[in-house]
Amino acid sequence: MKHTWQLWQEQELLRHIQASCGRLLLGLCGALLPAVPVGLLAGRTRRGNAILSPFLYLFYSLPKIIFLPLILMAMGLGNAPKIFLISCTVFFHIAIVIRDAARAIDPMQVAILRSLGATPGQTFRHLLWPACLPAILTALRTGLGIALALLFITETFASYSGLGYFIMNAMETRNYEDMYAAIITLGLLGIGFYILLDRIERKACPWK
């Protein structure tokens, strides 16, 4: 741990931590933004469920990492393919959870709001979103482990920044102290994101 602390104080490791944090955060946001409307559409409409659910199940079961060479060929060697792969993988996980949460909403509650003159926007704000938000945050927490694994793998391919690159480079040069320190750092990064999501849930869902 002493070497880990010393390494944290160096700008070189900080650069790799910032690169990994940025990719992870953008990947999760890129998954969440499209997953919310897709999950709600599949969960609240029969036609949406009939059209979208087969595709969600099909692509959810596929190991997206097998498409990494194709993604690298299409998008180059920068941050874009790494973020895109994380987003694609976590997207299907979140979308399915949102769909199930939306389907579990009591139709009577929706009917009551509509009878009171609530617009679709008001129904979303006061019923659909609060009902689905805990499931969304839970899906983000469970998807975090998947995102971290993909982050490590993608950073070992044609990359010169990030904790994945740092770990593999330290292993190849037999700098095992740096390697173990970076592994600990990657684990702490995951714990930090998990705690952040847990606190967001406590603030955003006080009724839970």
TrEMBL record:
Topology in membrane: Multi-pass membrane protein
Record keyword Nuclease present: no
A GO-annotated cellular component: plasma membrane
Keyword annotations of the record: Cell membrane, Membrane, Transmembrane, Transmembrane helix, Transport
Listed Gene3D superfamilies: MetI-like (1.10.3720.10)
GO biological process: transmembrane transport
Record's protein name: ABC transporter, permease protein
Species this protein is from: Megasphaera lornae
